[in-house]
Amino acid sequence: MNEAAAKDQTDRQLITLLQANARASTAELARKLGIARTTVVARLARLEAAGVIVGYTAKLGSEAQDRGVQAFVGVTVQPRAGREVVKKLTSFPELRQLASVSGEFDYMAVLRAESTMRLDALLDEIGEIEGVIKTTSSVVLALRVDRSA
């Protein structure tokens, strides 16, 4: 394996470790990666400067995550209605993520509501937005892997 590929692999391993525990010390990261602590510090600085790592955050525990309900919602919109639909969707505090996607839907939204009743009302509100043709939702039953911050 060439040096560039080794650096890329080590960077990927470093990022994976940070995703699991962003509070891990540089000494702990170095021990797990089998490299010097100063190398970890230099790599972190380089990844931050390059915009690969843009911040560190705290994740809520499963008790806090289990409150409420999360759903993935595919949203199909009329041609040229996307900008206004996105603007309206952005106003919902329950919206966690919104991505334009290829395939069956135009957008994929991640929503978190305090109850299934609120999720139902929210889906009705989204369906009533001018330009929305249809929504298709999938409620999250269990999160199996979460590497998001």
From TrEMBL:
Organism: Roseateles asaccharophilus
SUPFAM superfamilies: Dimeric alpha+beta barrel (SSF54909), Winged helix' DNA-binding domain (SSF46785)
Record GO biological process: regulation of DNA-templated transcription; response to amino acid
Source species taxonomy: Bacteria, Pseudomonadati, Pseudomonadota, Betaproteobacteria, Burkholderiales
UniProt keyword Transcription, yes or no: yes
Pfam family, one: AsnC_trans_reg
GO (cellular component) term, any one: cytosol
Protein name, per record: AsnC family transcriptional regulator
PANTHER family: HTH-TYPE TRANSCRIPTIONAL REGULATOR LRPC (PTHR30154:SF53), LEUCINE-RESPONSIVE REGULATORY PROTEIN (PTHR30154)
Top-rank taxon, per record: Bacteria
